[in-house]
Amino acid sequence: MNAVTNTENAALAVIEPGHDRSKYLGGSDIAAVMGLSPWQTPVELWMEKTGRTPREAPDAARQRMFDRGHKLEPFIRDMVIAKLQDMGCTVEVIAINQRYADAEHPFLACEIDFELRLTGTVEIGGNEYEFDGEEINADAKSVSGFARKKWGMDSNEDVPIEYAAQFMHGLGIRNRRVCLVAALRSFDDVDIYWTVRDDETIAAMRDKAVLFWTQCVLADTAPDPLTFDDIKLLFPSDNGQSAEATPEIAEKISDLRRIKATIKDLEEQETLLTFDIGEFISPHASLKRDGVELCTWKAQATTRLDQKKLKEDLPDVHNKYCKTTTTRVLRLKKGT
Fold first, then answer.
1. pLDDT in tens, 135-166
2. 3 state SS for 196-261
């Protein structure tokens, strides 16, 4: 296979660090635009890009994770280069952490962790791919905990779909054939995954991103909601009036009422079963049958803020950190 040429993106622009993220759709935004992000819906992204909600700073734990991942990038990069060389490839690093804007649509952008010039043969999904000085995108990921379950076998394209969208977006902007994904699962080794360019997928993603930017962000028109939380974001307060239910909506109200009644019944059954099991176990820490542990009931310590005592002892401090929010609650009326 021949490398993809870069003639279409001859005017590709490099974005300087610190650029206002509200002015473009980056690689981390694309999964949200596609409705594939586990972290953000299209509505939430739209509210951020239009300035309705600020881009939330990560909490301390998540920020430490980001910082740790950034510090590990050089380590991951060196490991994957060594692994490629062990496979008989010639590798050259040609760029690190560059941000690019699309030549045709400057509001589409991507940041590539590192870019390589690759020569050699690699196996991707059971097929051999030849590289002859070809420039490729590369991304470094630190994979741990529950996230490992979302990754398949290495040397394949089996990466989490939200990442696949990001990598395919980058291939579209850089007009390249493949993106190498270096996944660090331990300090002993790094797994190599790939995302191979698919022109049909890139075109569909590109069209959707352009429509999102032009018809939603620039036109200041919200995208269709995907979740109930999206609806609450779009309509945080009511107008005080009533709407006339259609037969279809009235039927959905009846269905919801039946489901809630079923849930309540199951919760009551859960409470009774929990009581019976807990009473039987007491005061032991676990329950076994034929040597197999069925369940545990162990003491564990939990630390919580005593807000009532804080308000009594330090009312000024309590009031300083109190925050009032407004929300809407969907309640079904009895007897309807």
1. 999 999 887 655 567 777 777 778 889 999 99
2. ECCHHHHHHHHHHHHHHHHHHHHCCCCCCCCCHHHHHHHCCCCCCCCCCCCHHHHHHHHHHHHHHH
What are residue 109's DSSP bridge partners?
A: 101
Q: Which two tokens stand for residue 141?
A: 């990921």
Q: What span, in angstroms and rounded, lies between the C-alpha atoms of 155 and 308?
A: 56
pLDDT reading at 325 higher than 90:
no
Q: Which amino acid is at 147?
A: A
Opening angle at CA 224, ends 223 and 227, nearest 5: 120
Q: How far is CA 300 from CA 31, 275, 294, 296, 307, in A?
A: 39, 19, 19, 12, 21
Q: Does the pLDDT value for residue 279 go beyond 50?
A: yes
Task: Supply the pLDDT for residue 293.
Answer: 94
CATH number for the 13-218 domain, one of 3.30.70.20, 1.20.120.910, 3.40.190.10, 3.90.320.10?
3.90.320.10
Domain boundaries, the chain: 13-218
Model confidence band, residue 303 (pLDDT cutoffs 50, 70, 90)? confident
At 214, the amino acid letter reads T
